[in-house]
Amino acid sequence: MITPAYREKKTQTxxxxxxxxxxELPSVQLLQVFDPEFYQKLQQEVRSLSYQLDxxxxxxxxxxxxxxxxxxxxxxxxxxxxxxxxxxGRPVQKIDLQARLFFWxxxxxxxxxxxxxxxxxxxxxxxxxWPESAGGExxxxxxxxxxxxxxxxxxxxxxxxRKRSIQKFVKYINHHAGSE
Length: 180
Fold this sequence. Notes:
Layout: H1 4-7, H2 9-21, E1 27-31, H3 36-47, E2 52-56, E3 60-65, H4 69-75, H5 78-88, E4 99-101, E5 107-108, E6 119-125, E7 138-141, E8 147-150, E9 156-162, E10 167-170
Antiparallel strand pairs: 1-9, 2-3, 3-4, 3-5, 6-9, 7-8, 7-10
Helix pairs in contact: 2-5
C-alpha cells in the first residue's frame, strides 16, 4: 500500500525532523506515497463514489461523499497508522476521513463562526493533473496574516499539525478547472 521507503524507520525519523522544523505550522509532504497499483485502485474507488453537493454559501461549496468501509479500513491499517505515527513521533489511533470533490466555482472560506479546533490534517490528493491556473489551492493561515499554501501533487499525502490559531481554506476554483 505505502511505498516501501516511507515504511523505513530511518526515513520516518528524517521526515519527523523535517515535520517539526517549522514551529508555526509543523508539516511534511510525502510524494508518490502509495505504490502505483494501490494508488490506481484508490483513485477508482474514490471516483466512483456518489458525491452530493455540499453548499453553505457563507462557508463552502464542494461535493462530498461518505467513504466506503473498505477505504476506511485501509487508512486504519497497522501499516498506515505506523507510518503516520512514525513521522509524527506519537501514536495515531484514529483517522476521520472525508471525500471531497472540487470543480469550477467551488471553495471554502474562513469564518469566525466556524473556527476549527487544533488538530492534525491529512490531505491526500488523487488528482492526476490539476492546472495551476484553475486556482483551488489549499491555504493555511495564521491569525497574523501569514499564509502557508499547500503544494498539491498527485499521489501525495500531506500531514499538517494545526494550532487553534491556524485555519485553512480552499481558494476559489475558476473556469480553467472545468465542470467535470
